[in-house]
Amino acid sequence: MRVESVADRMEVNCEGCAGCCIDWRALLEESRGTGARGSMADDEARRDPVDADANFVPLTRDEIRTFLERGIGEALTPRFWHAADESEAVTIDGHEIAAVADRPVFFVGLRKPPKPVAPFGREAETWLPTCVFLDPTTLQCRIHGDDRFPDECGAYPAHNLALEQETECERVEAAFGGERLLEASVDGDPETLLLGSQALGGKLFCHPDPDRLEGTIERLAAGEPTREDRATCVAVAAASSPGTLAVSEHHREWARERLLGAQDETDEEATGEESADDAWVGPAIREWQRRYARADDEVPSAAVAVDVEEARGAPETPGWECLED
Ligand code: SF4
Q: Taking a C-beta distance cutoff of 8 angstroms, is the pair 133, 142 a contact?
């Protein structure tokens, strides 16, 4: 079956794949490296991310605010990079972190809790880091096409083609066969591709208080950021102004309140202004983490997502049958 990505009308074959929504490197004997999604593509310098996510989905400032307004800030996490050289580095937790004007720079993107998934025609499920919004049963996106659907996801894989980078579709083809990328070129730069100074404050954020990141960088490197670690960065991103280094203290406080105040600390139903439609996100992430931590060798069926996600209010996905040509 053929589908098109939303923003840039690339024709791709996504059925049974979701390779750009899952960190599937554990299925390979050795990693083939990471792609351009989630990389800092402002020049030729190579900067390795502090975290290990192979296909991080960066969001814009406005998308981050929408997520906060809708009560799904818990879906968000920051990404920092190791500096390419000393001239751009700030030292935090013993790491040389890429910075602009001595302010560590970062993206904010989507978390990937462990979920049991069986992509690429595999018969058995494997626990893999999987986008919070991916339905493990159908391998379809629960927010596809709605107002929370990230531009980056709609523009993929056109962004990689515009940057002359290998796409996740091609990596899946190389590893598992089949045809995934049905168009090999894109005309011009995708509208949503923010590069260089255009990205500053709009998609690439600068943290004004490097001291507040002590401990955070180490925990991000270990894959164990705390709620406070995520909140301090997401709040700065939500309070940033495109094209500048400015951070609005009013919006920063508002964002922190949305992340740490109004949201529930437990797995009880969400409270405050949080939308009942979106209250499933945080509890579902924590439930996946609990199930993974106590898992034995037997990986559960992806169908347990009905209990973990849909029973908490996650929107269902249509399946592929009704999308057939
Ligand atoms: S938001 Fe949807 S399309 Fe984007 S990575 Fe997550 S599951 Fe995939």
A: yes
Q: Which atom of ligand 1 is nearest to the CA of 55?
A: 5
153 Cα nearest atom in ligand 1: 4
Domain that holds residue 230: 3-314
Could you tell me if the CB of 141 is within 6 A of ligand 1?
yes
Q: Is residue 170 part of a domain?
A: yes
Mean pLDDT, range 77-98, rounded to an integer? 95
12-68 pLDDT per residue, tens: 899 999 999 999 999 986 444 445 567 765 555 678 999 999 999 999 999 999 999
pLDDT tens column, 115-159: 999 999 999 999 999 999 999 999 999 999 888 999 999 888 877
Whether residue 231 lies inside any domain: the answer is yes
Average pLDDT over every residue of 169-191: 79
Distance 141 CA to ligand 1 centre (A): 5
H helix or E strand, kind and range, residue 249 = helix 249-256
Tell whether ligand 1 has an atom less than 6 A from the beta carbon of residue 153. yes
Q: 116 lies in a domain?
A: yes
246, pLDDT greater than 60:
yes
Ligand 1 proximity of 308 Cβ (cutoff 6 Å): no
Number of domains composing the chain: 1
Q: Kindly state the tokens that stand for 84.
A: 């390419």
Residues 129 and 22 sit within 8 Å (Cβ to Cβ) = yes
Q: Looking at ligand 1, which residue's alpha carbon is closest to its atom 8? A: 21
Task: Indicate if the alpha-carbon torsion angle 67, 72, 75, 78 is positive or negative.
Answer: positive
pLDDT over 50 at 228, yes or no: yes
Q: How far is the CA of 107 from the centre of ligand 1 (A)?
A: 16
Instruction: Assess whether the C-beta atom of 134 lies below 6 angstroms from ligand 1.
Output: yes
The answer as to whether 321 is a domain residue is no
Cα of 63 from ligand 1 centre, angstroms: 14
Specify which residues 58 forms β-bridges with: 109
Distance CA 125, CA 87 (A): 45
